[in-house]
Amino acid sequence: CPESSQCPEMFSDTVTARVAKASPLAAMPLSMGRHSEASDESIHRDMEVPAANVSLPHAPKPDMFVAVFSAKFKEARRHAARWAWHGARGVTVKFVMCKYPQDVLAITENEKYKDIAFIDCEEGYRSGLLTRKLAVTMDYYRTNYPTTPYFFKTDDDTFVRSNELLFELKLAKNPYIYAGLIYTHHNVPNRNPKSKWYQPSDVYPERYYPASAAGGPGYVLSKALVAQIFNNSLPDRYPLTNEDKAVGVWVNKVEETGLWVDKIKVKGTDGYRLNKCMTFVNRTWSEYDLVLHHKVHPKELLCMGRTWKPHDSLSQCFSCLD
Predict the structure, then answer these.
(1) What is the pLDDT of residues 256-281, one digit of tens each?
(2) What topology in the membrane does the UniProt record assign (predicted)?
């Protein structure tokens, strides 16, 4: 499992908050793909994914702005994600990439699809670069989608059941919402200077991080909560190395002002310890109840973009015999 998450449970653990449950809106435009233990870099290099003939959805008046974090050399993931997001309703989705280092191929790609937002930041992990990317993306959301109720950050290797997610968000009565795979156990900041997740104590001296949602699967912040985060200059005051832990700290600081934040635990997996072949064998799409599914390979996302009937087998896109 990644050092950043410090080996959390495979599925989101218990949180003292309203828990998102399956709703009648469970659609079936999803499936699984080949299970592999190879690294993301190897998969990207070796896997052929055809160019998509669809762009990410762009609703005229979206209920949710979706920021899909991507980076240089990830065009295979983006092509697959376009299919996975194809047909999503009520959302506007953008791949988010930093302008630096410049990616000429991605610029050309955007001329065709017009679904990449190049923002003023530098790609990377050390020294809080990823957190800086998030803060600039949130500001992009505030500027370009000021009336959109929800901001959702996710990764380009995550499958999202957006209808299900929106259904749960709209049940909340509180304007301050934080939703995702929320981990409540005590995560300890990494104090090893050699680690890419090194957290200097001068930026965050506390012994533990507060509850936070996993960054890969994604998390939702309501418009009102985003406004409070910026009104209190929290991204500038707490530029933590780890982007998802930074959000947890920002939300905690908002709560310390006396506001109550509704933390919604969404059903999903961070994917780091998920054996798909064992988990989904002999199950049908009607039994698939994950809303956020991280660590999905490009060919899996391509398969997820298809429309499946409720009684179709979950393993149709798997190859678990080799």
Answers:
(1) 999 999 999 999 999 888 887 778 77
(2) Single-pass type II membrane protein
Residue ranges per structural domain of the chain? 40-317
* Spatial distance between the Cα atoms of 84 and 133, rounded to a whole number of angstroms: 24
**Which residues have a Cβ under 8 Å from the Cβ of 210 and sit 6 or more positions away?**
248, 249, 251, 252
Q: What is the largest CA-CA distance in the chain?
A: 55
Distance CA 212, CA 218 (A): 11
Paired strand residues for 262 = 177
Structure tokens at 239: 């530029």
Q: What stretches of the chain show up as alpha helix (H) in DSSP?
A: 40-46, 75-85, 104-113, 129-144, 162-169, 223-231, 234-237, 243-256, 276-280, 298-304
Which CATH number is correct for 40-317, 2.60.200.30, 3.90.480.10, 3.20.20.70, 3.90.550.10?
3.90.550.10
88 in the Ramachandran plot: left (φ > 0), alpha (ψ -120 to 50) or beta? beta
The pLDDT tens digits for 4-48 are: 433 333 333 334 344 444 333 333 333 223 233 334 443 344 357
Residue tagged 């979706």 (tokens): 66
Q: What is the pTM of this model?
A: 0.86
Q: Which two tokens stand for residue 44?
A: 């990207």
